[in-house]
């Protein structure tokens, strides 16, 4: 993997995926467990690990360092998903209806994922929802919004003005609502 071998990532996850899922299962908070199962976390971990390997940002010096890195990425994924759930519950004003709708989609995905493994189980998880956005910048805006980051800080992070970020968010929100409602049909 340190040499950028993405197939090595797949082989590693196939061999050790169940071990990682067991460790993650014990660390998931109940509120997150209702919306994301360990397969969702493993899917997120695999995408992030693949990206690190592809970009050759992955070069552990020992097996302990390697496992530490893997579990840190998994921990970060769990924490991010917990923050998303918490932030979506706290949305008020014009975004509260959309946040409730997103939570409903995530709960629906979780209920229907019982017993399903692989990518199917995480199909409607938040990462998959924002994957419908073509622009990486739009994905960043949507993720930061879901994490409860104020528009001013989102604007600073993506290098746009506050007004542009608010307008983009409104377009993103309507696109996702339309795109995902069309999927339900």
Summarize the topology:
Layout: H1 6-27, H2 30-33, H3 38-54, H4 63-89, H5 96-112, H6 126-130, H7 136-146, H8 151-158, H9 162-184
Helix pairs in contact: 1-3, 3-4, 7-9, 8-9
Question: How does this structure look, described?
Answer:
By secondary structure, the chain is mainly alpha-helical. Helices cover 72% and strands 0% of the residues. The chain has helices spanning 6-27, 30-33, 38-54, 63-89, 96-112, 126-130, 136-146, 151-158, 162-184. Helix 7 (136-146) crosses helix 9 (162-184).
Summarize the structure.
It is built from nine helices and no strands.
List keywords for this structure.
globular; 185 residues; 72% helix
Label the structural class. mainly alpha
Binned, the helix content reads: over 70%
Oligomer: single chain
Instruction: Compute the separation of the termini in Å.
Output: 41 Å
Order of helices and strands: HHHHHHHHH
Proportion of strand residues: under 5%
Sheet bearing the most strands, described? Answer: none
